[in-house]
From TrEMBL:
Signal peptide: none annotated. Its cofactor is Zn(2+). This is Adenosine deaminase. It comes from Priapulus caudatus. Residues 16-350 form the Adenosine deaminase domain. Gene3D superfamilies: Metal-dependent hydrolases. Its EC number is 3.5.4.4. InterPro entries: A/AMP_deam_AS, A_deaminase_dom, Ado/ade_deaminase, Metal_Hydrolase. The lineage of its organism: Eukaryota, Metazoa, Ecdysozoa, Scalidophora, Priapulida. The keyword Isomerase does not apply.
Amino acid sequence: MIRSGINGFAKQARSRVELHVHLDGAVRPSTIWELAHTKGITLPGANFEEFKQKINARGSGSLTKFLDAFNIFMPVILGDLQAIYRVAYEFCEDSANQGIAYVEARYSPHLLATTVPDSPWKVMGDVTPKMVVETVSKGLSQGEKDFNIKVRQILCCIRPFPDWSSEVVYLCQEFRSKGVVGIDLAGDESQPTHPDHKKAFQEAARLGISRTVHAAEAGPASNAKAAVYELLAQRIGHGYHTVEDEAIYQDLRARDIHFEVCLLSSQATGAVTLDWSKHPAIRFANDDLNFSLNTDDPTVIQNTLGDEYDVGFNKLHFSERVLARTNFNAARSCFLPRDEKDELLNHLKEQYGLQECCTRL
Ligand SMILES: [Zn+2]
């Protein structure tokens, strides 16, 4: 039995699980604003409210606007270990305030470092990718304690930078005991996947590091197939265009591959049409596909996980049962070790008032 009403669902304490959120896309706008002023960096907008609007790509349908927002604020954060610690710590507080029990936060250590020569923002210094992971680990660990939430990390490889990927695998291995549970591949999927990414993901699989890949977000269904068969992904980031190839869709469904759906992001980036009634997640829900709801980049979409559930309920007309199922899908597809995953599932069952014997909604 599910407790009554969408509002009742929303109010359940610490009952949600989030699998797809970028830590560097989840920075509080107020933190960016404050740090920029301390550092003498000029931001667009005459005041804070105007600045917030400048970096808000919600509903824009424009990948350019979405990516431009990162160009505005990333230089304020990257290479600043104090700022990175603060972002990680505040992320825990913000997630806890949204009723999240467990979240996997992802980021590229290379994009936040200043020793990487081909970094897109050309801010050079002495902060290495390893120092970034060390700092994020410390910030999250303190935040977990202070806000009573469980947070794990996924380290991202970036498609146009295949040279970084072997170090990402190394960092995943090195920081396993400090909360890193998986590897991701993000970035422009219009080019074929570089062999160095494939090598890195195969090595990650050999080492028992869990794998998710951004695929079929803006690109074709074949990218999702390649993610699963060549990069050995257990989860797909987005995957909307998979529905355009029935054979691939049915195959991934039969394999119980998890799809990390981000509704507001999918419209913000123009990955899908602005017509909610045609959103691929409706098909996912009707087919009982293994998918979850996620925020992706709250800094530039200015959304909460609650907003995603509201969109699912109000725009895609998901039933409470479907919404609850997406949350349980997230828990059973998360990258925690078996015993911790069981603990999380039992916690959710308790929160939803489900009997111990019920394994699926
Ligand atoms: Zn993403």
